[in-house]
Amino acid sequence: xxxxxxLAWLTxxxxxxxxxxxxxxxIWALTPQEDATILSSWAKHFREHYINDTDLPIMVSGxxxxxxxYLRSTLFPDRAQGSGPSLRSGDFGEILVADYIEHFLxxxxxxxxxxxxxxxxxxxxxxxxxxxxxxxxAVPGPDDELFVFESKSGLRPSLAHRLQDxxxxxxxxxxxxxxxxxxIKRRFVDRGAIDDARRxxxxxxxxxxxxxxxxxxAAILDDAVFAGTDLTxxxxxxxxxxxxxxxxxxxxPDLMTLVHALYERAADEA
Length: 270
Prior knowledge:
This is DUF1837 domain-containing protein. The protein is an alpha/beta fold. The protein has helices at 36-47, 56-60, 67-75, 84-103, 112-116, 162-190, 194-201, 223-227, 255-268, and strands at 10-18, 24-30, 130-134, 145-154, 212-222, 245-252.
């Protein structure tokens, strides 16, 4: 699968830091450029997490709105009101992490349904943030992998330690995993995508069908927030899957401005 153009802006810095419990944290950098073609492609990719472009005309029909008005008022989190801005930053982080594990690590990551089935545009979707599946061979086997990732965005200064928040939420995934897999499977069944539902089903009982479980925690941080975050105080000592836990920080300049720009372009170019 070709790498989406915007992921050329996501690079491994080679920098590593260790947490208080000795876990390694990878540091990646997101460095967007003023390239209208790539930004438009990224905005389309972003928009289609909320609605397929082929479905947009029928959904807009009867509303009296333009495509852009419909997206802003009905599907996209609000730019300024209530929980909208934090949801925008959270969705951005989750989608970026999903891009990372799909295109850099080679997992199947069916994430669009998570956003397309959202009833309230300013209310986050419950369950595990990002789930990836990897099949080692044509026949299911113990080398198949389930990657469950928690993502937390810190795009504005605050007292929160977003990597620690992601680690703590990752601990909760032990209980949420089964419900999240069921939700993904249900969405595929509802759409008649039975083959995809079966692929998810393969990971619903590790006792009957062994596989390798990997957990991850990611913090997506504006450069200013990154500069004020001490990653070495974070700890995953209480995590249930310490031996298969991946930690990553993605940093970048003025990321909230980028987030709003992507949403605006995604609406205007629909």
